[in-house]
Amino acid sequence: MANPVQLKDEGNKHFQAGDIDKAIECYSSAIKVCPDKKMLAVIYRNRSACYLKKVSHLHSIDVDAADIKALYRRCQALEKLGKLDMAFKDVQRCATLEPKNRTFLETLRRLGAEIQAKLKTTFSTDSRVQNMFDILLDEEMGKENKEKAANNLIVLAREDAGAERIFQNNGVPLLLNLIATGKPEMILAAVRTLSGMCTGHKARAMAILHMVGVDKLCSVMAIDDEEIALAACNLFQCINDSLTGGDKREYGKEEALVLDASKDLKTILLSLLEMVASKKVSGHGRDQALNLLSKNVPRKIRKEKDNSRTLFTIDHGLKKILKVCGQVPELPDQLPLTENTQLIASVLLNKLYDDLTCDPERANFKDICEEYIKSKIDPKDMDKTIHAVNTISGLLQGPFDVGNALVGHQGIMEMMVALCGSERDVDQMVAVEALIHSSSKMSRASFFITNGVSLLKDIYKKTKNERIKIRALVGLCKLGSAGGDDYSLRQFAEGSTEKLAKQCRKWLCNPQIDTKTRKWAIEGLAYLTNDADVKDDFVEDELALKAMFELAKSKDKTILYAVACTLINCTNSYDKKEIIPELVQLAKFSKQHVPEQHPKDKKDFIEQRVKRLLKAGVTSALAVMVKADNSILTEQTKEMLARVFLALSENPRDRGTIVAEGGGKALIPLALEGTEAGKVKASHALAKIASISNPEIAFPGERVYEVIRPLVSLLHTDRDGKQNYEALRGLTNLAGFSEKLRVKIVKESALPDIESYMFEQHDQLRQAATECMCNLVTCKEVQERFLQDGNDRLKLLVLLCGEDDEGLQTAAAGALAMLTAVQKKLCTKLTTVTLQWLEILQRLCLHHNPQIQHRGIVIVYNMLNSDDSELAKKLIESEMLEILSVIGKAEDSPKRQEALDAARTCLVKAMDLGLIKPFTNTS
């Protein structure tokens, strides 16, 4: 047997001597007998160098008959190097020069087949998948290549074919290997790929769940990394949607197996509940576990009677959620939390309580909460006691009725008051927070005003701890605002609330105080801005406004509700009861309390406050707030943000600022999700913006199509006239922008509503609807409605042309001009819908408004051009000829030039039809 080392050395000698062919021969022989992989790699490299040398020698070949052999040798060398495309070009030239040479033709066929096979292999999903995993698991591979491979894998998994290929090619164990590396970027790539594979495919989702295991997925979500926790949460959601059928999208052919996912769903639910109270879980992981419970446990549709998941969660996890609410981060041995964890837990408690269907279920919920609180109250263990008080605070921020009932129990209130006098700062802080949350009802606030104000004042004056001081101040703020915006129900002496607000603004603007503490300054202002003097002072303090907006953009999203409340108060966008003078007099006569409006709550003051808020950047803050996590951004908060947006967009001149700072985009999700009132307010604000803005700028990209549904919802008869009007104006602007938008408006079934408003007695609504129709008539589906028999659509349009209102006439005549231009049948039909058609048409042509006159003459031209000779004859035999002649003979005028040119075109058309002859002078 030949020695590979000797053969390699011999090849090296030939290479150095310049005998490339002999060197290649030696290296090829060595490759056949070499068992050592490292040496084999060296020999391959040496042989490649030989081929490259041959290619470089042959590179300057002139393609003629004499050089065919050299060209073919270069082709062979390139083939050996794996450069098949270049080799193919060379042999292609050879075959062109010698088309009957069998060697060339055979090589050409063989190389062509090899190239096709290589392309197929290179671009096949199997090859791509394996290649990506090889790159990701290669320790020596560069970061850029790994990132590219990870992104490709994620994208591939989002396609059903790609997801299936990854799954079939041992993909799940390989993804588990990526997770096992412990590197955040690898874990993220693996989790996101699994999410794609589980989306919309029940059988595959179930198989992956069993292969990976619920415990493994939970351990990934428990990692102290926000991005990984969020990705794992999304993976759980994809699995849940696939197993429950929650994902309604089409993803290709689903297996025809009947799979029972109930056991798996129950396992996931129990595992998430375990995560909620586990010390091994990070704050981010706990947030996502609570989010998943919040999103998937309570019923999404109240009409469904089955709330068994909620009842199961209450039985197996309510105490765990209460434990999270009761955590006091300042104490040792607490669960890892983020700034948002306890608020998310409170929101979950509220959703669970709201999902209960009867009194026995609610009584059970309250009993579990009461039992938990009692088990934690221990006079000998202060840490346990303040845990109980903090749990009550959590309930007061969630299911308020439950928390309020617990506060009313004997000894609870006294315990809170006693803790306020404790020497430990943490006791005072927790107690004051609980007092603040529990005094939300007027009756309870009145109790505190009588019994607790002096206590809070005492704490405020004596404590040196800023965190306690600010909380005591918020307590005083809340008590001071118990009368709401009723000027006659001021709780404190004149000027006291302004002093409290000034101190809150001072804390708010101090960047050296931590975010969690500064949040309480906004809480205070949320209460105090019920007072118009306070809100007026606040909006003039631009530094304080900007500080609040910066906090609203921070990671601590527990602040959103307080910011929303403050903005609601500053813009007076809360619901106001209409004050009827007769009833006020009656109430005074019967010695009943009559609410009084503060002088600074009048319209001109509100407008000034809105301008100051916009100047300080309120829109960009609202846009960030809307993007917050769904669990924290409750439906009530969404409604408040929608109300603020509506107040800000009241003045048309301010709408450009709102659009420039992303307000248009931010309003879309508020208009599609939330409370009914919130969706209506957001839709109304959208309509205001859509009516005067360029849609491409206000709602960039595909978002513009999402705007149409909210606007159409405002056309319903249960909406007020102002909302109907703004929606019609918004749709008019959108309809004038593109054919795709017009088609979308038609698809959203807006036409019947728009047509009904064209019959409306209210002049503005009728004009707005007609203007909208004028922009829609270029759409084929709209034209077909006018062509249908047995309706009054065309008749209405003709009659509207005869109205006295110029705006209405302009819109109706414009619609009629476009319809008769594209649908010649309508020209004849127009004469049958009403006997007044000719009179109305003549009035349009004689109109003093150049726009209306031009549109009228265009309708006449369309009728002359309609291929209906009788109709054309009838028009010319009427007074219309004289009208057209007078207009056509008039001197050119910039204001009326369009009408003059149209009249002259009509006369030329009449001559072409032989209905009139040109006037000639006789000599």
Q: Ends: how far apart?
A: 123 Å
The percentage helix is over 70%
Task: Please count the beta strands (DSSP E, at least 2 residues each).
Answer: 0
Largest sheet: none
Which architecture of the domain at 4-123 per CATH?
A: Alpha Horseshoe
Outline, from the CA principal axes? flat
Task: Output the radius of gyration.
Answer: 39 Å
Given the helix and strand composition, which structural class is it? mainly alpha
* Arithmetic mean pLDDT: 86
Strand content: under 5%
Subcellular location: Cytoplasm, Perinuclear region
GO cellular component, one term: perinuclear region of cytoplasm
Main location: cytoplasm
Domain UNC-45/Cro1/She4 central: 291-479
What does this structure look like?
The chain is mainly alpha-helical. Among the domains are: 4-123, Tetratricopeptide repeat domain (Serine Threonine Protein Phosphatase 5, Tetratricopeptide repeat, Alpha Horseshoe), CATH 1.25.40; 131-245, Alpha Horseshoe (Leucine-rich Repeat Variant), CATH 1.25.10.10; 497-616. 71% of the residues lie in helices and 0% in strands. It is built from 53 helices and no strands. Helix 37 (663-672) crosses helix 40 and helix 41 packs parallel to helix 44. The longest helix has 22 residues, at 102-123. The radius of gyration is 39 Å and the shape is flat. The chain starts with a helix and ends in an 11-residue tail after the last helix.
SSE blueprint:
Layout lengths: L3 H14 L2 H14 L3 H21 L10 H13 L3 H14 L4 H22 L1 H13 L5 H15 L2 H9 L2 H10 L3 H15 L3 H11 L1 H8 L4 H19 L17 H15 L6 H14 L11 H18 L15 H14 L4 H18 L5 H16 L2 H8 L4 H9 L4 H14 L3 H10 L1 H10 L3 H15 L15 H13 L6 H14 L3 H9 L1 H11 L7 H12 L9 H9 L13 H13 L2 H9 L8 H14 L6 H6 L2 H10 L3 H17 L2 H4 L4 H11 L7 H15 L3 H9 L3 H8 L4 H14 L3 H8 L5 H9 L4 H17 L2 H9 L3 H9 L4 H15 L4 H9 L2 H10 L7 H16 L11
Helix pairs in contact: 1-2, 2-3, 3-4, 4-5, 5-6, 7-8, 7-10, 8-11, 9-11, 10-11, 11-14, 12-14, 13-14, 14-16, 15-16, 15-17, 16-18, 17-18, 17-19, 17-20, 18-20, 19-20, 20-21, 20-23, 22-23, 23-26, 25-26, 26-27, 26-28, 27-28, 27-29, 28-31, 29-33, 30-34, 31-35, 34-37, 35-37, 35-38, 37-38, 37-40, ...
